[in-house]
Known about the structure:
The complex is a heterodimer of chains A (113) and B (113). With 113 residues, chain A is mainly β.
Amino acid sequence: QQQVKQSPQSLIVQKGGISIINCAYENTAFDYFPWYQQFPGKGPALLIAIRPDVSEKKEGRFTISFNKSAKQFSLHIMDSQPGDSATYFCAASTTSGTYKYIFGTGTRLKVLA
Amino acid sequence: GAGVSQSPRYKVAKRGQDVALRCDPISGHVSLFWYQQALGQGPEFLTYFQNEAQLDKSGLPSDRFFAERPEGSVSTLKIQRTQQEDSAVYLCASSPPPAIRYTFGSGTRLTVV
């Protein structure tokens, strides 16, 4: 029940295209869903996060879509650029207690120039 | 400092050796987390501190793992009698209250040979 399932494992997109990464969770107690971007040799960096009271959040080229009834959320990267090539992790947490994140297994994105 | 600082960046330990990994959080961040990231996987929670209090250590994989934050700032993760399965990147993160928005360090890559 603590798992967060992420897909696809890897993704190749042409420059200017849309990258879509999906995640699903089981624990309905989760109420905070961040996405992190990680470059090789670096720690994860927060991209964007959403709470379940909204269905969509947009920041620049990054959009999270959230479906509470399906317990799914996704990251859309519009106008993908070669500099977006990185590994992306979704995560889920509760905003009470420990605030520990349950991370997905990651998606390795490559944007072709 | 401006970010979370971890040292050493790389550590090679012989099996059975004890190691100590250091984390300097962002000044003023009361919450501090340790995560373990195996190769090609998402980070997994190890332990959580609020100031000097260790409020959650449920993710520590065995009693060989020990973490402390005696003055509520710098934290040390100690692994005794290292084993090959301990090889991973150990990430530290800190957060101001509320503890939900982390800033991760670049991690310490531990290789046990």
